[in-house]
Amino acid sequence: MVPVWRRAAGRLNGQVLVGAGALLALALVAWLAPYLAPHGPNDQDLLATLLPPAWAPGGDPAYPLGTDALGQCILSRLIYSARVTVIIATSAPLGAALVGTAAALLAGYCGGRIDWLVMRLVDVWLSFPAIVMALVLMVALGPSIGSVIVAIVLVDWTRFCRVVRSEVLVARQRSYIPAARIAGARHHSVLWRDIVPGLVPTLIALVGIEIGVAVIAESVLSFVGVSVQADVPTWGRMLADGLADVFSAPIGLIAPMLCMVGTVFAASLLGEGLRHLNDAYKQRQGGAA
Questions:
Q1: Going by C-beta distance under 8 Å and a sequence separation of 6 or more, which residues neighbour residue 1?
Q2: What is the rounded CA–CA span in Å between residue 158 and residue 183?
Q3: Which terminus of the chain is less hemmed in, N or C, by CB atoms within 10 Å?
C-alpha cells in the first residue's frame, strides 16, 4: 500500500515544489537573519561608501555585495528586508482571503438584494486604481507593517470575493444543499459543512497568486516612502536608494530588484501550480458527480 504522503507528493507538480521551496527558503533566511547577515541592517561605515562587490576590483570581503551611499552592507539589508516581505506575503493574502470569502459567502448564499449590494460594492471598489487606493490608505493609516497589511487587504479582498462568489453560486445549486435544508440543517451549518470545504482548493490557489501581488504592492509602497518606518529595511526602499547611484554602484539597484523578481516568480509558480491542481480537482469532482 502506497503511503499517504507519497500519494500526496505524486499529485504535486514541479511548479508547486519549486515555488513552495523557494518561498520556504526565503522564510528561513528571514528567520535566521541575525545569524546570516554579516552586519546590522543599519550599521554605517562612512569611510566605505559605495563599495563594489567583494569579487570586483576595490571590493572588501567584509561586504560581500558592497555598500550603499551610507556605507551600509547591501547583503545584510537584503537579508533583513526579507523579514518584511515574509510577514506581508503571509498575512496580507490570508486577510484578503478572509474578508473576501466572508463577503462572497454572504452574497452567493443569500442571493437577491444582498448579492446585488455586495457586488455593487465590489464594482465601486474596483473602479478605483489599486495603487492609488493603497497610497491613500497608507497616508491615512501611517507607516507600519500593520498599516501595509491592512491597506493590501482592503484593496485586494474584491479579487477573492468575485471568484469565490461564483463558486458559492455553483455549490448552492447542488442537490445536497436543498436536501440538507429539508433535513433541518441551519444556514450556518450548511455553509460550514457543505459549502466551505469545497472552496478550500480555490482559496489555496488564490492565496498562492496573491502572495506575489502582496510582494509587489509592498515594494511599490516602500519605493515611494509610505510603507514601514524609515529604520526598517525593505527591498522597495533599497531600490529607491540604489536608483540615485545606479551609474556609480549599480549593485545597489540590481540586488534588491533580483530578490523581488525572484520572490514574485516563485509565488507565480506556486500559484500557477496550485491552479492546475485545483482544475484537476474540479474535473475529478465533476466526473464523480
A1: none
A2: 34
A3: N
In order of 25, 27, 84, 136, 258, the CA distances from 236 in angstroms are 20, 18, 11, 18, 12
The domain locations on the chain are: 63-288
Q: What is the CA radius of gyration of the chain?
A: 23
CB within 8 Å of 255: residues ≥ 6 apart: 65, 74, 75, 78, 238, 242
Using pLDDT thresholds of 50, 70 and 90, give the confidence band for residue 6: very low
Phi, psi angles (nearest 5°) of residue 73: -70, 120
**Phi-psi label, residue 91: left if phi above 0, alpha if psi -120 to 50, beta otherwise:** alpha
Cell numbers for 211:
502572495
Contact 134, 173 (CB under 8 A): no
For residue 56 the three cell numbers come to 570586483
Distance between CA atoms of residues 194 and 180, nearest Å: 9
CB 53 within 8 A of CB 75: no
In whole angstroms, give the CA distance from residue 238 to residue 76: 12
User: How far is the CA of 161 from the CAs of 104, 107, 178, in angstroms?
Assistant: 5, 9, 24
Q: What's the one-letter identity of residue 269?
A: L
Distance of CA 2 to the CA centre of its chain: 34
Model confidence at 288, in pLDDT bands (50, 70, 90)?
low
Q: Each residue of 53-71: pLDDT tens digit? A: 999 998 999 999 999 999 9
Among 203, 209, 218, 97, CA closest to 146: 218
